[in-house]
Amino acid sequence: MPLRGRPKKYRIVRTDPKVSQFSPRGRPGRPDEAGITIDEFEAIRLSDYIGMPQKEAAQSMHISQQTFSRVLKKARRAVAKGLINGATIKIQGGQYVVTTHKDFQPNSYKKA
Asked: What pLDDT, in 10s, does the model give residues 2-61?
C-alpha cells in the first residue's frame, strides 16, 4: 500500500544527544516509558537550554515556526509526563539529519 499524505521533511539537528535515556531513581520495578524523538530533543535544546527564540530555532532546524512550536509542545508534554509519572524518558528516532554546516539544504539529502 503506498504511503498517503505529504512526506515529512528532514529536520536539521546540530548534535546527537549525549545520553539516550533518563530513568527515575526512587521508583522500584520497571517504570513506564515516555519517548521523545531526536528532533524533539533538538527543539528543547534550542528553545529551553540555549534560550534561542522560536523563529531562529525553526530556521536552524529548517522547518517553519509553526512546525517548530508543534514539535516543542509535543516534546515538553512527553518530558512532563515522564517527570510527573516517574517514567523513563527515552530519546530515539524521528526524521532528522545531523550536520554542523550552516548552509546545509535538507532537500538535497537522499536517504540511502
From this structure: 778 877 777 888 888 888 888 887 666 666 888 999 999 999 999 999 999 999 999 998
Count CB-CB contacts under 10 A for residue 73: 12
Strands (E), the chain: 11-13, 21-22, 33-36, 88-91, 96-98
Distance CA 79, CA 89 (A): 7
Q: What is the distance between the alpha carbons of residues 40 and 2, in angstroms, rounded to a whole number?
A: 27
The domain spans of the chain are 11-102
Residue 33's Cβ-count burial label (10 Å; 0-12, 13-18, 19+) is middle
Which of 66, 85, 77 is CA-nearest to residue 40? Answer: 77
The DSSP call for residue 86 is: T
Burial class of residue 58 (count of CB atoms within 10 Å of its CB; 0-12, 13-18, 19+): buried
